[in-house]
């Protein structure tokens, strides 16, 4: 090992207090030049400070579109299971969004590999320094549930040394297909979208967005959750053609079959109910994605995929009402015990 590779030679990470969540801290991850022309860009890693036992390793949580990390209960669940919890706000999202950025815009979802690789390296480094197992469970929600499987598939094929640190993938309502009319999901439609995306990438997609989901969540309207409405507006950020094309190309790769190389748990609601305005029906259903699509395409993610429908869950199953939320956590706990948690023989080094 060279001098520059030794732990003592590594630059200290500049963690600082988070302005969005009390008792959390953030680390800015500077990124290279933005291919989409909105430099400077960075990503943000979030954690609770202080040493906690993490015999099972760590969790890396990746949010969805019009989203960022605020789900403290999810952190507590994994901490109680023996995991150090980290969340990543991707470029131009949440804490990483600045005034000169088009919110959540990328022209290729593979661009996120830069911050995902950097975050994974920091997690494994900090686990090693703490004497914990260098094992990471990746958690992806919605668009994050599309980004993360494709990242792991690429990592398995091109960077097995990094990939070996990842032991499982938990997906929370992954966005694996376009909702709406079947004509929108043809390959011909994808080619048209790709052409428009290449020519008018940042042009808004002319569609009316419903605020029903946001209103079902936020405590200022009908929900129980508190979060920043500038970073996660009730009606969402409007999608752009280039971003939507990137999403569609990524979905088609999943449809061709990929292999994330680790056990997968894919959670979804048991039903979808789409509404243009809020009503109580959206409190017990996915009003963002078609759950039938999630069920159909989840098996295409790898060789060991467990797909579970959670009765009466919302789009973010961990932001559901208390009953379905408890059922979702129970399903995760069972999966972790069966597939992921460190076994006694591993702890003993056998």
From TrEMBL:
Highest taxon of the lineage: Bacteria
Keywords: Hydrolase
Gene3D superfamilies per the UniProt record, alphabetical: alpha/beta hydrolase
Hydrolase is among the record's keywords: yes
Domain Serine aminopeptidase S33 span(s) in chain numbering: 54-196
GO terms assigned for molecular function: hydrolase activity
SUPFAM superfamilies xrefs: alpha/beta-Hydrolases
Annotated protein name in UniProt: Alpha/beta hydrolase
Organism lineage: Bacteria, Bacillati, Actinomycetota, Actinomycetes, Mycobacteriales
